[in-house]
Design brief:
Radius of gyration of chain A: 22 Å
Radius of gyration of chain B: 22 Å
Number of helices of chain B: 8
Pfam families (chain B): ETF, ETF_alpha
Strand order of the largest sheet of chain A: 11-10-9-12-8-1-6-7-13
Distance between the termini of chain B: 68 Å
Number of helices of chain A: 8
Structural class of chain A: alpha/beta
Strand content of chain B: 25-35%
Largest sheet of chain A: 9 strands, mixed
GO biological process, one term (chain B): fatty acid beta-oxidation using acyl-CoA dehydrogenase
Number of strands of chain B: 18
Protein name (chain B): Electron transfer flavoprotein subunit alpha/FixB family protein
Helix content of chain A: 25-40%
Shape of chain A: globular
Domain Electron transfer flavoprotein alpha/beta-subunit N-terminal (chain B): 4-186
CATH class of the largest domain in chain A: Alpha Beta
Family (chain B): Belongs to the ETF alpha-subunit/FixB family.
Shape of chain B: elongated
CATH superfamily of the largest domain in chain A: HUPs
Oligomer: heterodimer
């Protein structure tokens, strides 16, 4: 059984930042493995360690700079990685769900995995839709926001985390795409040995032509036309001074509100 | 094509709040396009739901009497068929856990663009202008789409629920559900662990987030909780890490709390968290980041390191 894990490198933003047009000025940007995908990788690797799965393959849409993040996934136990990048993607400022699916669909067709595990959402653009849209495109079953997974034969028994502390128990036919919620497991840190081994694992770069994807399929339908800092909705009273002073002011407030003595 | 199709949501016999919110968002769009507002409800006691969805601004409620609880295959088939029949310009669905389990499939099956988690919607001619957040709420963006049909999911609690009654027509829609294409079965629901404490009953909550960095630092927080005679709660990452049990989690997937005072310590204020605590009477945020989203809803704030402020606060009550 093979698991494909779409892994994204997300942009992280410093506390203080400036906006430059429709992007954040790159001086304030960092990069990291998408938190939700970290849990998806861990879930796949655990399935392999349990002997249920034979191979864990990651796929990342990203330029050469994302290889460090991809190596992280390999260091955590994925067996090999595919990186998709192409000149046609250089100028796309917002890769929307349809564009991502056009690429990932081709990868699924080439790899023919039994299971696709990916994060519920990404920390930067937060569409939260790629997994389910991909499932529909490739004709797989799916489950969104999964926080427990038991795989038995052709069925995935999952818990889906609904709102308000309720979980839905669902049986899903495999092959399937499951979007993984944080907290489903405890993602491991890459060991030194894992990091060393990751350097020797296969990381295959593919272009759109390699995958048979037309360049115009990744242009997307959504245009990012403005980016700005949200307006603060409340009049916040900021306690000023050192920690002793601010703590004293807060203590007065708590006594005034009658919730502390 | 200028009509709107909004999709209701229900669970265990109850229409969920977001159903009245998709009506509001749909009615606003219909007001701009001059089209009709259609509302769909799939499964469960559709007649009762249709009565409840007969709200101001709704022209027609379409009922699909198939199944009891949510099933994404049934929803995807029913909504896609309704969209084919009605040809709406915009489909408005909830950005809920279940919304995210069918809306992307609907968009893919209809081969239309998808704008998720919208917090604002407007039209300019044939262009849809959606407002979305990125980077965990640090920035807002404007996203434009030109297409004959667009699928949209809206964030909960961003639109006022429509409460006023309407005079809609109710029509049964005879969806042709292909049972062979149903590959998922809901077998039940479980309530996440109760336990010793009900945080939703507390008057004073001390709530911690990622900012406490290490599990060992819980000791310091517990000392504060004891000094204040408060109740300890947390944001999601603390529960994900296994430092506190699930019954302590505030937020969309945890508990909704409304204490007199909510002290958020090292919590950035992700939207899912804010959904669970914004009803608190007074919100105090302690965070080094003055731009953290939590600051947008805080009544009082300390822009400082919690490891300096918390010991000083303990001192005040010793």
């Amino acid at each position: 059984m093979k698991v494909l894990v779409p892994v994204k490198e997300v942009a992280t933003v410093e506390d203080e930042f400036e906006i430059d047009g429709t992007t954040i000025d790159e001086r304030y940007l960092g990069a990291d493995l998408n938190e939700w995908d970290d849990y998806a990788i861990e879930e796949a690797v655990q399935l392999e360690e349990d002997g249920v799965v034979d191979e864990v393959v990651t796929v990342t849409i990203g330029n050469e700079e994302t290889e460090q993040t991809i190596r992280q996934a390999l260091a955590k136990g994925a067996d090999r990685a595919i990186r998709v990048w192409d000149d046609a993607l250089e100028d796309v400022d917002l890769l929307d769900v349809g564009a991502k699916v056009a690429i990932l669909e081709a990868v699924v067709e080439a790899e023919d995995p039994d299971l696709v595990l990916t994060g519920v959402q990404s920390g930067d653009d937060s569409f939260g839709a790629t997994g389910v849209a991909l499932a529909e495109a490739v004709g797989y079953q799916w489950g969104a926001v999964v926080n427990q997974l038991d795989l038995e034969g052709e069925t995935a028994s999952v818990h889906r985390e609904l709102e308000g502390g309720i979980e839905e128990l669902t049986e899903i036919d495999v092959p399937a795409v499951l979007t993984i919620q944080t907290g489903i497991n405890e993602p491991r840190y890459a060991s030194l040995r894992g990091i060393r081994m990751a350097q020797r694992k296969e990381l295959d770069h593919q272009t759109l032509a390699d995958l048979g994807v037309e360049a115009d399929a990744v242009a997307g339908d959504l245009r990012l036309t403005a980016m700005y800092e949200p307006e603060s909705e409340s009049d916040t009273t900021v306690f000023e001074g050192g920690a002793d002073e601010t703590a004293a002011q807060l203590a007065d407030l708590l006594r005034e509100k009658g919730v502390a003595q | 094509m200028s009509d709107i199709l909004a999709v209701a949501e229900h669970r265990q016999g109850e229409l969920r709040d977001v159903s009245r919110e998709v009506v509001t968002a749909g009615a606003e769009l219909a007001g701009e396009t001059g089209g009709d507002l259609h509302v769909a409800v799939v499964g469960g006691d559709v007649e009762t739901f249709a009565d409840a969805l007969n709200l101001e601004g709704v022209d027609t409620v379409h009922t699909v009497a198939y199944g009891e609880e949510f099933n994404h295959d049934v929803y995807t088939q029913a909504i896609t068929q309704l969209a084919d029949a009605l040809e709406p310009a915009y489909l408005v669905m909830p950005n809920s856990v279940n919304g995210l389990d069918y809306a992307p499939a609907v968009a893919t099956r209809l081969d239309v663009p998808l704008v998720t988690d919208a917090v604002g919607l407007a039209t300019e001619g044939d262009t849809l202008v959606g407002t979305r957040e990125m980077y965990g709420g640090k920035v807002e963006t404007t996203t434009e789409v030109d297409a004959d049909q667009v699928a949209i999911t809206i964030r909960g609690a961003e639109w006022e629920p429509t409460e006023a009654a309407g005079d809609a027509t109710v029509e049964a829609f005879d969806a042709d559900i292909d049972e062979d294409a149903i590959g998922s079965t809901v077998t039940g629901f479980e309530e996440v662990a109760g336990g010793d404490v009900d945080i939703s009953e507390a008057d004073l909550l001390v709530s911690i987030g990622r900012g406490i960095e290490e599990e060992e630092n819980l000791d310091l927080i517990r000392e504060l909780v004891e000094a204040l005679d408060a109740t300890l709660s947390s944001s999601r990452p603390i529960v994900d890490a296994g430092w506190l049990p699930a019954n302590r989690q505030v937020g969309q997937s945890g508990k909704v709390v409304t204490p007199d005072v909510y002290i958020a310590i090292g919590i950035s204020g992700a939207v899912q968290h804010v959904a669970g605590m914004k009803g608190s009477e007074t919100i105090v945020a302690i965070n080094t980041d003055p731009n953290a989203p939590i600051m947008d809803i805080a009544d009082y704030a300390i822009h400082d390191d919690l490891f300096d402020v918390v010991p000083a606060l303990i001192e005040q009550f010793s």
